[in-house]
């Protein structure tokens, strides 16, 4: 299989981690958003997974479900359909926070006079409220941060890794101890160590983003 994208994208990293956890061999084909052919993905966004039959799968949550079907073990979703739905809900929340983080990065990459304070505030508010909700779930440890790794855990860890690399909320860990402990545990796994984002200097100003958060 081929995975098209870059580890600098948290959604690409999420799919890569799932592939590694399931011991599914794949080749990473480096590409960034808006450079993909419409024949691969009409939206031009990553990740895109090309399976052994040459068919493409292009939405991260659907790719995750496809991989769960393709390789049921080790399971990243509970066998019970209702329990699986709860885990997917937590994964969707983590993906939503990731989308807010990506939107914040995009806005901060604009020139100072082109940035809109209202949008910056909205993106930061989504980040804070999402992290607060995920903290509660991680502290409870039922559907998130449980004894067995799940697709929700992977989504949360990739989101936290992205926030750290981009310095979007430098002090997020102060009020989210359960997420900190969860991230420390997951980042020690080989699947996360092998998918660290590359150096991204020059794509945007870290100092500008940190100063405006």
From TrEMBL:
<dbReference type="InterPro" id="IPR004045">
    <property type="entry name" value="Glutathione_S-Trfase_N"/>
</dbReference>
<dbReference type="InterPro" id="IPR050983">
    <property type="entry name" value="GST_Omega/HSP26"/>
</dbReference>
<dbReference type="InterPro" id="IPR036282">
    <property type="entry name" value="Glutathione-S-Trfase_C_sf"/>
</dbReference>
<keyword id="KW-0808">Transferase</keyword>
<dbReference type="InterPro" id="IPR036249">
    <property type="entry name" value="Thioredoxin-like_sf"/>
</dbReference>
<dbReference type="GO" id="GO:0016740">
    <property type="term" value="F:transferase activity"/>
</dbReference>
<feature type="domain" description="GST C-terminal">
    <location>
        <begin position="80"/>
        <end position="213"/>
    </location>
</feature>
<dbReference type="Pfam" id="PF13410">
    <property type="entry name" value="GST_C_2"/>
</dbReference>
<dbReference type="Pfam" id="PF13417">
    <property type="entry name" value="GST_N_3"/>
</dbReference>
<dbReference type="GO" id="GO:0005737">
    <property type="term" value="C:cytoplasm"/>
</dbReference>
<protein>
    <submittedName>
        <fullName>Glutathione S-transferase family protein</fullName>
    </submittedName>
</protein>
<dbReference type="InterPro" id="IPR010987">
    <property type="entry name" value="Glutathione-S-Trfase_C-like"/>
</dbReference>
């Amino acid at each position: 299989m081929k995975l098209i994208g870059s580890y600098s994208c948290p959604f690409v990293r999420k799919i890569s981690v799932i592939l590694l956890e399931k011991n599914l061999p794949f080749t990473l084909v480096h590409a960034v958003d808006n450079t993909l052919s419409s024949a691969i993905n009409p939206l031009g966004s990553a990740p895109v997974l090309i399976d052994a039959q040459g068919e493409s799968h292009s939405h991260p949550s659907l790719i995750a479900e496809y991989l769960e079907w393709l390789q049921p073990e080790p399971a990243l979703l509970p066998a019970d359909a209702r329990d699986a739905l709860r885990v997917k809900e937590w994964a969707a929340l983590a993906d939503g926070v990731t989308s807010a983080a990506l939107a914040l990065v995009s806005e901060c990459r604009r020139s100072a006079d082109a940035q809109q304070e209202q949008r910056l505030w909205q993106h930061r508010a989504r980040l804070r409220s999402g992290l607060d909700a995920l903290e509660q779930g991680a502290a409870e440890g039922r559907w998130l941060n449980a004894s067995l790794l799940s697709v929700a855990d992977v989504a949360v860890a990739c989101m936290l890794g992205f926030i750290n690399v981009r310095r979007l909320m430098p002090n997020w860990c102060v009020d989210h101890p359960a997420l900190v402990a969860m991230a420390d545990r997951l980042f020690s796994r080989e699947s996360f160590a092998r998918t660290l984002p590359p150096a991204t200097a020059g794509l945007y100003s870290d100092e500008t983003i940190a100063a405006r958060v």
